[in-house]
Amino acid sequence: MGYFDSKKNVSEYIKMVEGYDGSKLINELRTNLKDGSTVLEIGMGPGVDLDILKKYYKVAGSDSSKIFVERYKKQHPDSDVFLLDATDIKIHRKFDCLYSNKVLIHLTKEDCLRSFKMQKKILNAGGILFHSFWHGDKVEEHQGLLFTYYTDYELMAMVKDDYDILKVQKYMEFEEDDSLYIVLKVK
After folding, report:
1. Separation between Cα atoms, residue 129 and residue 162, nearest integer Å
2. Residue 31 main-chain phi, psi, to 5 deg
3. d(CA 8, CA 97)
4. Distance linking the first and last C-alpha atoms of the chain
5. Which fold has domain 3-9+20-186?
6. What is the pLDDT of residues 8-29, one digit of tens each?
7. pLDDT for the residue 19
8. Percentage with pLDDT > 70 across the chain
9. Taking a C-beta distance cutoff of 8 angstroms, is the pair 99, 29 a contact?
10. Separation CA 120–CA 105 (nearest Å)
11. Which pLDDT value is given to residue 1?
């Protein structure tokens, strides 16, 4: 059973992230992806970023937590959301962009690399990835939830064979340069 397969953990997470969203990241995404494009959010959680993305794009949301998906569907019955594992990305659809906000950090480095390889298969020609991470060089676990940190150089080395690197940028979530995002274009 995963961390987000518990209603208690989901409720605690929603309270913890209240007031935080990816609006700054989505504004940066908009400089790289035209409005109206198709976007899949990987790891939508409670759907805060998904709601922002919907303002600009044709969006589908996904999560590996049935609780998050069912909760969002109940609140937004006409939404395009479904269960999806971020590692193996088993879906028979294609998108112009795949987006995640600190979701791939919950994978091991090996699974994150596998995810990047699988993501390439569901991108349209010229499609882009936009993902954010905690910046650093450590792995932590809190209450059974994995947190894998990445340096910009480590991420670039992971993706250079499959993607053109459009941008890697550090930013501040809580402390200066504690986070980074990467924008990639499929080769």
Report:
1. 11
2. -75, -15
3. 32
4. 36
5. Rossmann fold (3.40.50)
6. 998 988 888 888 889 999 999 9
7. 84
8. 99
9. yes
10. 18
11. 67
